[in-house]
Amino acid sequence: MLRFILAFIPCLALLGQENIEWEWTPENLNIAYWYHLDDTLHLDSLVYFETITEATFNELKKQHVEFITVDSTKFKKEEDTLFLKTAKGDTLLVDAPEEMEDAMCVHHYVGEMDVLNQYLVMSELYESSEVDLINQDTGERTRSFSGIPNISKDTTYLLELLANPYDENTDFGLFKIEEDSLSFLFAATYLQWMPNAVIDSVYWVSDTSFILKATPSQRYWTNEGFYNESYQCIKGTLLKDD
Length: 242
Prior knowledge:
- The chain is about 10% helix and about 45% strand.
- By secondary structure, the protein is mostly beta strands.
- The protein has two domains: about 1-65 and about 155-240, no CATH class; about 65-150, no CATH class.
- The strands form four sheets. Strands 2-1-15-14-13-12 form a six-stranded antiparallel β-sheet. Strands 3, 16, 17, 18 and 19 form a five-stranded antiparallel β-sheet that branches.
- Strand 5 and strand 6 (about 80-85) form a beta hairpin.
- The radius of gyration is 19 Å and the shape is globular.
- The protein starts with a helix and ends with a strand.
């Protein structure tokens, strides 16, 4: 059902799509809806996005540190049940089969973030998916994200940045890591570009900057209704966290 809906979205978008030239300017990159002020504005005083070359992207990517690890001794999947080892014993996550439609939920182990003492579990839902953080001591869910979050090199920040194919924009959420907990800083929706649908990874390359490959929102889908594989490399830099 999810595949059908996602395939239908580009057809709807193309009905009203105008043939407008779009440029990778600072104005287009940094315009966003900021929830704190309930307004659309340029957020370049908080986070500044700029274009970079592919060569610069590849060189910067070497600085990335991966904080998600996989330990096959801490989990197992048997039929419809995912077992996670915790300090209090096994935590069991039981799937709800696809036949249950709206109530469908299939659990997949992604890995763990030791800096947060959390497991990452992706839940495949009927028309979407989410990623849950599950405390490795208690087995309790502590927070849910729409995609896999990314941790800065100095483990100060956690970033959620992902494409919204329904609204054709980008959801951005920033959190501060305090010991093994998260404090919400701010959220915004970038209106003019989206992480590329084919290469959507985000890489922290310093304590305050990250890189990704992006596509203009109006070109996220091709005229044939497929994901657009073309992209521009961009870099985001945190300037303020308040």
